[in-house]
Design goal:
heterodimer; A: globular; B: Lipocalin; eight-stranded antiparallel β-barrel; 2 helices; globular
Chain lengths: 298, 201
Amino acid sequence: MDALLELLTTVAAPALIAAVMVASARQRAMQAALLASGDRTPGALAPLPAAGALAFAAAFLCVHLALFRELAVPSDTRDIPFQHKVAWVIVGVALVTPLMTLPLPFLRRVGHLLVAGVATVLVSRFGLERSFPDTAGWFVRLGVALCMYALLVWQDRTATRVPGMAAPVVWSLALAGAAVTILLARSASEAQRLGGMAAACGAVALVGLLQKRTRFPAGAILILTLVYAAALIQAWVYDLSLVAVLLLVAAVALPGVVMPRMPTERRQVLAGASLALACATAAALWTWAHAPAPNPYG
Amino acid sequence: MKLALLSLVVLPVALWSASAATPVTTATSLSAPAAEAKTLTIDAVHSTVMFRCMHLNTSWAYGRFDKFSGTIVVDGDKSSVAIEIDPSSVNTANGARDEHLKGPDFFDVKQFPKASFQSTKVTPTGDKTMKVDGNLTFHGVTKPASFVIEKTGSVNDPKFGKKHGFHGTLTIKRSEFGVTYMPGGLGEDVEITVSLEGNEG
């Protein structure tokens, strides 16, 4: 019963939340689906701004609360763990997403830059400040934040150029692969968090399958990149090797090189999914092969 | 000549008896203010900080921390206890489980490399017992905690010096310290037992 409840709260619920929120963000598309007589033009199927950030932030919080039963608040007598700090960054990003809906494109770009920049710096700092506290550590944190930001920009570009279900499928596979890899590095809660987000991406991919011209909604990439990078940072600070980290970064980054060159959506999905799966599997195998000893603990 | 023979016999015996002197058990009351406050340094080799927690609501799983340090001041109601523990020294006799406990699911030792107990008030409750109130810091959370310490003995050993022994147990709820993972697998209550040997001077 406990296992079933855990499956429902950490996998099914975030998937449902993300799918429903992404689908309902397209009001006219929703109307089309429900009444079978709505407007099915590309413009009508464009998602509302910031829907992605809200949908994936809600899915993330659902998994987080199911696993940790609280969103810990820092105080004089409480220094909260990195996982809770990341959750607060996600909440903050979701709350300021109206910046991404500003009417002027320039302001919208500045808003996005600001939110993404601050969030990546915070995640990098929170994750590495204890392990790299000195001046040299400052450069490490800055370097990681810049890499995270570059990945974010690259993913945003890919998701904009590749409509439909390709980008959510790639993210779903990469997240699932990272979950398995991190589980092998013995962080079960982080693996479950990534598993929940993989399920959410899978559900959004299904929405993309039903509505061909759907794009990954705005802000989704920001949340996913932050969650993914935070998990990799935490796992790297503990046991995960740099090789596995780089392979998992490649799992989300490399499909962006290949997918836009493919002529059809079907081929985009196939090429992206194959690359993501190959890199994530390689990361999991590398981690398994380099585990210190067979694990007798269960 | 007789004197020389006698000294040959007596001297080795005297030397032997000095090296193997019987430890003198001393009595130090915890309730009465000491004439002189005693500051004891915890001897980690002869002390233990251990814990137990229910596994699958079935049996007790035991573990210990191998690295810790601290001091105990014995001075009536001005006594104090301070212990600092290195959570990364957790030892449950299973390497894989220890690694899991050190990770972010439980102790998160990279984020929280120290745990500690600092007393705020010590109330003697008898010649051999005292109630210790203080703050327990674990996993980044500081909360009030109190437990009863029993004095288990004292010795004035010619080789090891003056030593005093203490024993106490406190129970905490792990969720109150933000360790909430696996609520079905591991019990909520964690019983911590300290058996401390303090060196005088």
